[in-house]
Design brief:
InterPro entries: aa-tRNA-synth_I_CS (IPR001412), aa-tRNA-synth_Ic (IPR002305), Rossmann-like_a/b/a_fold (IPR014729), Trp-tRNA-ligase (IPR002306), Trp-tRNA_synthetase (IPR050203). Belongs to the class-I aminoacyl-tRNA synthetase family. With 320 residues, the chain is mainly α. The protein has 12 helices and 5 strands. It is globular. It binds adenosine-5'-triphosphate and magnesium ion.
Length: 320
């Protein structure tokens, strides 16, 4: 089947290995086969925080992360929310297709509210999954490579596509999620690895920073290292990180460490991560800010062209 791929990230900080194994690796694979769109979700930043002064900086860094992992702007349309106003126009009819109770029982939204530093929860917190439906459907996306936290959001998009088609005639495909090798990587503190929770190994961190972060990771005091996700989640998480980087099963790595304890586990994990990220970190240095700006300008132009066509179709289907 011919697919169109769409996915994206908020420019809230450097991308980390959770992003890599959750979604980026799939995007790099898919870009050779299908038309691929990658969204810099800048409007989504204000869901749970004031717009940081460094937003432009964050956007540039995100572009550099993309280039570093091997996204190719000749194949991929990289664009930003705020450059495509048609997305906001799609949001309006889409909002009419979901109920307030559907929006308020979204488990990912609940988790984000629980971790938010802001006291008051914004209306956007409940409606951004609908905005995401516009992000995916404007290009008639059919395949969405994401981490597991995104599954409830993708369900909102699927519901909206189905209901729109039922009410106004078929315009949209019903897209599917594509989960990565590790659909949800834990952070070094045991919660979801997130760029804004200070618990992540950034792709762009130095080798020393990586070593320091892993050294601080919580483990336990047992000497014998075993892979037991249920009873020793933090030890298991380090083994999982090393396993993803080395392409070897985590239980095999645990056997190899044996009675080496947490220090041997952390040493092995640090080396695995640094070896894995070395070529990515090297490639990052081969690109600069001016190049990132040009790529985005071209992507914005292409995305907007596509969005205008879909919005016309939507208006015609609705009889406007
Ligand atoms: P923030 O804390 O600002 O929300 P984030 O780390 O959650 O940042 P997002 O920009 O919200 O990152 O998500 C971008 C993509 O990366 C989504 O597809 C999401 O599913 C995926 N992703 C984020 N964190 C992880 C993780 N820990 N493991 C696997 N995939 C992840
Ligand atoms: Mg997030």
């Amino acid at each position: 089947m011919a697919h169109t791929v769409l996915t994206g990230d908020r420019p809230t900080g450097p991308l980390h290995i959770g992003h890599y194994f959750g979604s980026l690796a799939n995007r790099v694979r898919l870009q050779d086969r299908y038309p691929t769109y990658v969204l810099v979700a800048d409007y989504q930043v204000i869901t749970d925080r004031d717009l940081p002064g460094e937003i432009q900086r964050n956007i540039t860094e995100l572009l550099l992360d993309y280039l570093a992992v091997g996204l190719d702007p000749a194949k991929v349309t990289i664009f930003q929310h705020s450059a495509v106003p048609e997305l906001n126009q799609l949001l309006l009819p889409f909002l009419s297709l979901v109920t307030v109770s559907e929006l308020s029982r979204n488990p990912t939204v609940k988790d984000e509210i629980a971790h938010s530093s802001q006291k008051a929860v914004s209306g956007l917190m409940f409606t951004y999954p609908v905005h995401q439906a516009a992000d995916i459907l404007f290009c008639k996306g059919t395949l969405v490579p994401v981490g597991k936290d995104q599954l409830p959001h993708l369900e909102v998009t699927r519901t909206i596509a189905r209901r729109f088609n039922e009410r106004y005639g078929r315009v949209f495909p019903v897209p599917e999620a594509m989960l990565g090798d590790r659909p949800l990587l834990q952070g070094l503190d045991g919660g979801k690895m997130s760029k804004s929770r200070g618990n992540a190994i950034a792709l762009s961190a130095t080798e020393d920073e990586t070593a320091a972060l892993i050294r601080k990771a919580r483990t336990d005091s047992e000497r014998l290292i075993t892979y037991d996700e249920e009873n020793r989640p933090q030890v298991a998480n380090l083994l999982m990180i090393a396993s993803l980087c080395l392409g070897r099963p985590p239980a095999e790595l645990a056997d190899e460490i044996g009675y080496g304890g947490a220090s041997a586990l952390k040493r092995l994990t640090t080396d695995a991560v640094n070896d894995f990220l070395r070529p990515i970190r090297k490639r990052r240095k081969e690109h600069d800010e001016a190049e990132a700006r040009e790529i985005l300008a071209e992507g914005n132009r292409r995305a907007r062209e596509r969005a205008v066509v879909t919005l016309d179709e939507v208006r015609a289907a609705m009889g406007f």
